[in-house]
């Protein structure tokens, strides 16, 4: 594997980790909004919980992709 491809994989791992952390932080803020009484309308709670689950699953997927890419990078070295 060339140095350019290795550098691209390293950058991809960094980007995926950052994206996963941002999604996790956003889901944390949304979950705090669910706990605060009167912060959202009761009818919107289902939508908020669905969005929260989607964000957590997306963060999990990004983290798993970053770890798989990192493993691929270390195997090529």
Write structural notes for this entry.
The chain is mainly α and 77 residues long. The protein has one domain. It has two helices and no strands. α1 (3-35) packs antiparallel against α2 (45-76). The longest helix has 33 residues, at 3-35. The model has no long low-confidence stretch (mean pLDDT 90).
What structural keywords apply?
single chain; about 80 residues; mainly alpha; 2 helices; about 0% strand; rod-shaped
| Approximate helicity band | over 70%
Determine the structural class based on helices, strands and strand pairing: mainly alpha
Strand count, sense and barrel status of the largest sheet are: none
What gross morphology would you assign?
Answer: rod-shaped
The span between the termini is 8 Å
Task: Supply the number of structural domains.
Answer: 1
Q: Any idea what the radius of gyration is?
A: 17 Å
According to DSSP, the number of beta strands is 0
Strand residue content = under 5%
Count of individual helical segments:
2
| Weakly predicted, low-confidence segments | none
Average pLDDT over all residues: 90
Order of secondary-structure elements:
HH
């Amino acid at each position: 594997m060339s140095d350019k491809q290795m550098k691209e994989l390293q950058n991809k791992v960094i980007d995926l980790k950052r994206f996963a952390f941002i999604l996790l932080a956003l889901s944390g803020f949304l979950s705090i909004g669910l706990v605060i009484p009167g912060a959202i309308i009761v009818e919107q709670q289902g939508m908020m919980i669905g969005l929260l689950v989607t964000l957590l699953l997306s963060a999990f997927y990004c983290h798993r992709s970053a770890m798989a890419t990192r493993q691929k990078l270390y195997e090529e070295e």
